[in-house]
Amino acid sequence: MPASKAKEAKLETNENSLDVSVTQTALEDIDACQTDIDTLNEKASEEILSVEQKYNKLRRPHYSKRNEMIQKIPNFWWTAFTNHPQISAILTNEEVDCIQSLTNVDVEEFEDIKSGYKVTFTFKQNPYFTNEKLVKEFHLASSGEPQSKSTEIQWKEGKDLTKGSASETNGRKRKIEPALSFFTWFTNNTDPNADEIAEVIKDDMWPNPLQYYLASEGGASSDHGESDEEDEDDEEDDEQDGSAVVIGDESEEDQEVYVDEKDDDDDPEGEEEDEEEDGE
What we know:
With 280 residues, the chain is an alpha+beta fold. The protein has eight helices and six strands. The chain is 62% helix and 13% strand. The protein is elongated, with a radius of gyration of 40 Å. Belongs to the nucleosome assembly protein (NAP) family.
């Protein structure tokens, strides 16, 4: 190999080695920088958690006070639940009837927050079960995975709302498994990671149930308004139809009078000819 070629190859090898070295050093620096960022994120999470714990304690008396005031309003929680888009979507007709006996809802996060929370439903006497309180609890297992458990519902005979109904097909009875409903959600603890209803109750319904209670008044008002407008439109249509008939009748009368006047004024000869014909 000529000396010039060997020199060029050596220079190229040195340049490649230099590029690899620079890249490796840059990657190590980026990794060290990322470690610093992660450390700050962890510190921030701890401080945020501490702030959340502080304000959870400050909010509790207000939640208790709010629940006391809610007790004065009949069917408050029934109304809020049936107005909530996600919750109302899973309520069956029988469940809508059942939760009329729901008197109180409470969501309580555990002191360290990260370990979980529980939702407590309080019921008065009802035709479906004997429990006064139904509690669903979410917590972290020792493995770090979320788990949930719920109170066993003491259903009255023939009133279990979580059981499918039986139907007959070609003379054979077939059990129909129930779709997702409020009480099937409550009793199902197979996948707490995907429990959207619990998150909706904790993060949406519980912080401000008043907005969903008042939604009924807005909805009723809106529906009533639309009904009034429709009634007014119907009345206008009726008036227009009625006036059209009257106008038609009047126009016909006017037309007859108009024709008579025209015959009298504009065609006297024709009238004389008619009289002569009558005389004959």
